[in-house]
Amino acid sequence: MATATARPRYRARITPRPAGSRLARVRWDRFGRIVLVLVIFAVLASYISPSLNVFETWRESNSAASRLGELKAENANLAQQAEQLKQPAAETVEARKLGLVASGEQAYVVDGLK
Q1: Can you give the pTM of this predicted structure?
Q2: Which of 15, 48, 108, 110 has the highest CB neighbour count under 10 A?
Q3: What per-residue confidence (pLDDT) applies to 28?
Q4: Nearest Cα to Cα of residue 39 among 50, 31, 29
Q5: Residue-wise over 36-45: b if at least 16 C-beta within 10 A, else e?
Q6: Is 107 contained in some domain?
Q7: At what angle do helices 88-97 and 28-85 cross, to 10 degrees?
Q8: What is the pLDDT of residues 68-96, one digit of tens each?
């Protein structure tokens, strides 16, 4: 059997840096935390616009519902008015409100009633 010569194991030596050296190593743990915080802020920022849109849509739906109530009330008034105007005497009453006179009648203007 051949005898192997024992070689000393290679060990890398790290040269010490001077105490006031500006050459710093990258601290990956700190870098990772900073990147993680930035990513979390980016994700939160991406939720701002949709949440504002939801709030704005909710406000618009409330105002649209109140406007719908107003329009329904106006529609009921107009339907009642349309039913009244279907009567034969309604035409004459509306014409008198506008200041019209029937054929054969004499129109008079009275001034100074204030």
Answers
A1: 0.44
A2: 48
A3: 87
A4: 31
A5: eeeeeeeeee
A6: no
A7: 110
A8: 999 999 999 999 999 988 998 888 888 88
Dist CA 67 CA 38 (whole Å): 44
Q: How long, in residues, is the chain?
A: 114
With contact defined as beta carbons under 8 Å apart, do 94 and 100 qualify?
Answer: no
Q: Domain for residue 73, yes or no?
A: yes
Beta strands in the chain (DSSP E): none
Q: Which two tokens stand for residue 9?
A: 């194991």
Query: What would you measure as the largest C-alpha separation in the chain, in angstroms?
Result: 148
CA distance 60 to 54: 10
Q: How many CA atoms lie within 13 A of 40 on its CB side?
A: 6
- Number of domains, the chain: 1
Joined tokens for residue 66: 């109140």
Domain ranges, residue 89:
28-95
Please report whether residue 43 resides in a domain: yes
